[in-house]
Design goal:
Elements lengths: L2 E5 L5 E6 L2 H4 L5 H15 L58 H17 L3 E4 L9 H11 L4 E5 L4 H7 L5 E5 L5 H6 L2 E5 H11 L2
Parallel strand pairs: 1-3, 3-6, 4-5, 4-6
Antiparallel strand pairs: 1-2
Helix pairs in contact: 2-3, 4-5
């Protein structure tokens, strides 16, 4: 069973945390990570691209010129897709790009991502993170103490002061444990978990 040092928010070692072999000791599988990230990004797409076909473009009710005798090609409408300002042939219409991904695959991908961070030595656990007020400079002091430069920070629940203090900092994201996802785990270089968030994540990701 893997174990990690437990720190306070000033990076002083205060103990150790036993990690679940089932969750943090899984073998990272790139295929699972790929499938989970592709699914997440597809679900985030707005799918709002839209064009008008010739039936939806305004105008063009009258025939531009008579059928025969002008020496020009026959035409029925100025809104033909072959003319400038006409409708679009097979253009995009609003749609959803979302598709289902099995829950077992999503959980397995999360386990792979967590195991990857652990194997790379980029996972740190702190006892708790507390800020007395909403102040970015105070949050930056904690980051310097913990030696974090680009990190996903996972908390055990709502932490209003911490979330507000971190929201304008590039390279950092504060996430509640319920929102843990494969894309964010891979996007940020380091992973910081609170002790209580580890306790809540472990039973959720157990097989």
């Amino acid at each position: 069973m893997p174990a990690l040092d437990l720190y306070d928010q000033e990076r002083k070692k205060i103990g150790q945390v036993e990690l679940s072999e089932e969750v943090f000791g899984a073998e990272p599988k790139s295929r699972l990570l790929y499938e989970a990230v592709k699914w997440q990004l597809a679900c985030r797409r707005s799918g709002s691209a839209s064009t008008k076909n010739r039936a939806q473009v305004r105008g063009g009710g009258r025939k531009p010129w008579r059928q025969k005798g002008t020496g020009r090609a026959r035409t029925g409408s100025i809104r033909s897709p072959l003319r400038r300002g006409g409708g679009v042939i097979f253009g995009p219409t609003p749609r959803s790009y979302a598709y289902p991904l099995p829950k077992k695959v999503r959980k397995a991908a999360l386990r792979s991502a967590l195991a990857l961070k652990l194997s790379q030595g980029k996972l740190m656990i702190v006892d708790k993170l507390e800020l007395a007020e909403i102040k970015t400079s105070s949050f930056l002091e904690i980051l310097r103490s913990l030696e974090l430069t680009d990190a996903l920070i996972v908390t055990e629940g709502k932490n209003f002061n911490l979330e507000r203090s971190a929201r304008n900092l590039p390279g950092f994201k504060v996430l509640r444990w319920e929102g843990l996802n494969t894309y964010d785990l891979l996007k940020y270089e380091q992973l910081l978990l609170t002790r209580e968030s580890v306790e809540k994540i472990t039973p959720q990701l157990s097989k």
